[in-house]
Amino acid sequence: MTFRFTVNGEPVEVKANGSRRLLDVLREDLALTGTKEGCGEGECGACSVLIDGDVVDACLVPVSQAQGTTVRTVEALAIDGRLNELQQAFLETGGAQCGICTPGMLMAGEAFLAGGAEPTDENIREAIAGNLCRCTGYTKIIEAIALAAQRRTDA
Amino acid sequence: MDRPSSTTRTVPPGLTFPETTPLVVPTDAPAPGRARPALPLRREGPEKLTGEAKYADDLVFPGAWFGATIRSTEPRARLLEIQLDDAFDWKRVVVVTADDIPGDNIVSLIDTDQPVLVPVGGEIRHQAEPCALIAAPDRATLREAKRHVKLRTERLPAVFDPIEADREFAHYTVESGDAAAAMKEAALVIEGTYRVGHQEQLYIENQAMIAVPRDDGGVTVHGSLQCPYYVHKAMKRALNMGDELAVVVQAETGGGFGGKEEYPSVIALHASLLAMTCRRPVRMIYDRHEDISATTKRHPAVVRYRSGVSDTGELIAQEIEVIMDGGAYCTLTPVVLSRGVLHAGGPYRCPNVRITGRAMATNTPPNGAFRGFGAPQTEFAAEMQINRLAEALDASPLDLRRRWVYRQGDTTPTGQVLRESVAGIEVLEAAAEASAFDRAHAQTHSMREGRTDGARTATGIGLALAWHGAGFTGSGEVKLASVASLELTEDGRIRILTASTEMGQGTKTIFPQLVADTLGVEYDEVEIAPQDTSIVPDSGPTVASRTAMVVGGLLIRAAERMRARVEEATGRSFADAYRGAGPMRIDEQFVPYPGEPFDDKTYRGDAYPAFGWAACVVKLDVDLDTGEVAVRDCVAADDMGRVIHPVLAEGQIEGGTLQAIGYATIEEMKLVDGRYLNDRMATYLIPTSLDAPRIRSIIVEAPFSGAPHGAKGIGELPMDVGAPAVVAAIHDATGTWIHYLPATPERILAALTGGPMPPPPGISLEAPEPNSPPIEDLPPGGDEMPFRAPTDPGEPR
Ligand code: FES
Ligand code: FES
User: Fold this and answer.
1) What would the pLDDT profile of B395-410 be if each residue is shown by its tens digit?
2) Tell me, what's the pLDDT at B19?
3) Which of A66, A74, B26, B361 is 20 to 30 A distant from B176 in Cα terms?
């Protein structure tokens, strides 16, 4: 089967079995290895990407479901080699340690910022509840998202 | 221990403790994690944030095959035959067995007991033990091939309980004064038996290794690993290779926490054997299920503890027995036990101490390194004792620690005089002040007094204190004789050469920072060479919180020498002159820190060059209906010597503290027939952002003069102190002491209601009888709590 959808602004055409995981299509067929696999069963969120703006676990999505959608991955965030506000905030606050959860966290954070909810501690915790981090204790990730939210409001 | 049952509410008016009251942080403390533009930013941060960083599974090697491991499904058995089913065309794949190992069938570490693959005729000693390997050109073929392999075995009786085990990996005794005699003199004696279970590191990146055969007959492995030279040593021995033929390159590593200290050697050997056989790159990327089933965990332990207090209120005697479960093979167990034993007394002055420890072999997967490395197990017991002593003496747990904590000039049970950098009291006071401990403790106390039968939740606050020896134990650093190098290249670049790995803790940031500061150049002017054994010297493993202190110290000395040499030769400042002053390379080797050398036989002398100190205060709610614990707030004060990079250091404190909270509350491996039952992320739970409290980290700096920059290390310290603080808070809330970690809802509820206590952690249940219900459906536990000290006053009365 051939599937057509948009990835990071580019139209793509993928020939694959419809049950092939979107995660594998991204990582192996499209060489977008920024999206990570931590569990393969929807528990860790390391594979989080945005489909039409919603955070999904790419390990649970068959490529057939991506047909006609717009997919965004971590590779889309930096513009012309410059970190975006959220990435920059992660860098400054220490929100990324080993970095393996980071792409997924960033996508969950992007969706949260786009949603426009008040960047309270509680709301941010809720927004990243599907993304496990074993390194940071979450404190600095939450600060990073709050800092980015503040900078976007200020801008 | 009784469920609070008073019917009148006695909370004085005006004394309230609303659920959301945060612990108070002193106003002059920097906001944790506040962006500090003056500090260098994480060196590899941009790559990690853009998805460009290449972790092992992101690396592409054209034509690579996929490797898999055939594992045992019994805890102990004789391997009689590896059967390859004729229904499969075996020419499509390669199969490797023990017979194909060119060198010794040994995973080289402390001992030589662990085989790379169990040979036919050999003994399987644990579930998920590697017996054969397969590589195939694609995953589907690999899966099909795996289905056509069978292990024919003869089952042997297995041992699961370290107390019943008869095979010992190591034993140690630490003794000072006469503990038995002093115990008889004591006015108060408290004893208890504490048990802790396995803990899974659960780095979010699974173990991964890719082996690439080279034309010269050697193999290069690229993997997720902490210790390139451990892997290198293992390859040389099992693959019968010289120094140059075995090459180990660290890929970006998605967390380790000790879990990638020794196990990567096993995977590197497996991938290499397959790659040498099929003559192409072979990828061995574990999935989560395989990773949890097969790789190392934190050692379960039983700690029997007796403490004696004199009639003047001094701690005068400690008798401690530590039993650790090493699992089926030795791995690093002797060193883990050693650290556990040396920390078992806790950070308290006591003239009469006897600590014995033994590590036993069971038929469970080998246990190994995990952040804290034996100390979290024994310090949990030590702090439980102190908190129970405070209760028995009707003293504040804070005051008791103020009184007993080591001060400068005190002597530890190994005879080590704590000459400097002794900050137990500082971290204690910092945590107590930031959490307003006394006031909060008084409040929770009166809330408990006034609680009615209908109360649904109980709030408690708990305190714990710990010490953690910096760097390798005893003579470890001397034996390692690590080297770190600094290079000035011909074209004027400054390059750091060490084998110290980055796995999130910040090695690649603090090293250039230290070197740049010493040389008087900008952070960005200092490069760091890849962790590749063909390029960098053996600076020892990246473990034991030793990187900042030991290797960082070597780099500073190398930089001082380089700076002096360039400035002498040119008469100009290093920053002005260095670009034309190369090539030059400075190799700096470890020289022992000042102090009494440690005697490995008598366990006397300086066990560590210095200690880090940590205090933790936890506030939590216990749901009295479900036994669930919600940790609401946490203050962690840690002394790591001179801090190099506050943001990274806080990151270590926060991350380590949350791992400790997970250890205390929810993280438990359950075993049946020696196999981990909850071997998936859906069943082995770690704290999410919703479970995690806000963690307020306080950095305390008591510099260590033996290191040129005064640093002592921080990685493991927070792990020692969180769990006992949580259990103290559960007691404060409910009046119940939980002696087993984790303090799961089932254990708390059983303690509150006097119902059947779930089985102790860390011990495998026997295999269920055929036709019995699946083990997951069995009700938890028997009604008996084994190993409880009969006179334990903290137990149900
Ligand atoms: S890999 Fe998709 S949720 Fe873990
Ligand atoms: S930074 Fe390592 S798992 Fe989040």
Assistant:
1) 999 999 999 999 999 9
2) 32
3) B361
CA distance B258 to B250: 15
Query: For the segment B609-621, what is each residue's pLDDT rounded down to a tens digit?
Result: 999 999 999 999 9
Classify domain A85-154 by CATH number.
1.10.150.120
Separation between Cα atoms, residue B31 and residue B52, nearest integer Å:
31
Topology of domain B31-56+482-589, CATH = Aldehyde Oxidoreductase; domain 4 (3.30.365)
Longest dimension (CA), chain B: 86
pLDDT of residue B453: 87
CATH of B168-199+297-473+604-750, one of 3.40.50.620, 3.40.50.720, 3.30.365.10, 3.30.40.10: 3.30.365.10
Are the beta carbons of A40 and B287 separated by less than 8 Å?
yes
Q: Judging by beta carbons within 10 Å of its beta carbon (0-12, 13-18, 19+), is residue B455 exposed, middle or buried?
A: middle
- Give the C-alpha separation, B737 to B747, whole Å: 10
Q: Domain residues of chain A, as ranges?
A: 2-76, 85-154
Q: Which residues contact A28 (CB under 8 A, 6 or more apart)?
A: none
What's the confidence (pLDDT) of residue B772?
57
> Residue A130 CA: which ligand is closest?
1
The class level of CATH for B61-158+211-286 reads: alpha beta
Q: What are the chain B neighbours of A37 within 8 Å (beta carbons)?
A: 57, 206
Extents of the domains making up chain B? 31-56+482-589, 61-158+211-286, 168-199+297-473+604-750
Q: What span, in angstroms and rounded, lies between the C-alpha atoms of A44 and A67?
A: 24
Taking alpha carbons only, the member of B335, B256, B347 closest to residue B299 is: B335
The dihedral formed by the CA atoms of B274, B275, B280 and B283, expressed in degrees to the nearest 10: 80
Residue B616 near chain A (CB below 8 Å): no
Q: What is the mean pLDDT of chain B?
A: 92
Q: What tens-digit pLDDT sequence spans chain A (155 residues)?
A: 999 999 999 999 999 999 999 999 999 999 999 999 999 999 999 999 999 999 999 999 999 999 999 999 999 999 998 999 999 999 999 999 999 999 999 999 999 999 999 999 999 999 999 999 999 999 999 999 999 999 999 87
CATH number at A2-76 = 3.10.20.30
- Does residue B693 register a pLDDT over 50? yes
Calculate the CA dihedral of residues B29, B33, B39, B43 and round it to 10 degrees. 160
Task: Give the pLDDT mean for B232-256.
Answer: 98
B41/A92 Cβ within 8 A: yes
Question: What values do phi and psi take at B291, rounded to 5?
Answer: -60, -50
Interface membership of A76 toward B (CB under 8 Å): no
Provide, rounded to the nearest whole percent, the portion of chain B with pLDDT above 70. 92
Asked whether the domain spanning B168-199+297-473+604-750 has the same topology as the one spanning B61-158+211-286, the reply is no
